[in-house]
Amino acid sequence: MGLDFEKGGGLLPAIIQEFDTGKVLMLGFMNEEALTKTLESGYVTFFSRSRNRLWIKGESSGHQLKAREVRVDCDQDALVILAEQLGPGTCHKGYHSCFYRRIEGGRLVEVEPRVFDPQAVYGESPRSVSPAGNNRQE
After folding, report:
1. Has residue 112 been placed in a domain?
2. pLDDT tens-digit series, residues 64-95
3. CA angle 43, 10, 24 (to 5 degrees)
């Protein structure tokens, strides 16, 4: 395919957009194996930098992302994955998108409602470490 995994230390940033709306849902990273698994299985798979392993989005919550299309940028070092959200939300804190806040007057303001209770889904505080690592739940 000619993708430039080396520029990012073996990883490509992968922006996840909702297939039917174009809304940005999250950002993750993929190594070659994660991209291959995504293409073969049809479900978005990332590489966890903190745990040094692959993880399928939604492996613990059930809120998977069904990959519908994978696009590559002009430098072949970043991806946009158009995906269908299978579940109420992508964010481990209970929101549809991980980008549920904006900066207003130097502070963060929530601009989307919470769509699920992370305590009920994960059984722990949303600040706990997830199977995906990075001090968050997937």
Report:
1. yes
2. 999 999 999 999 999 999 999 999 999 999 99
3. 45
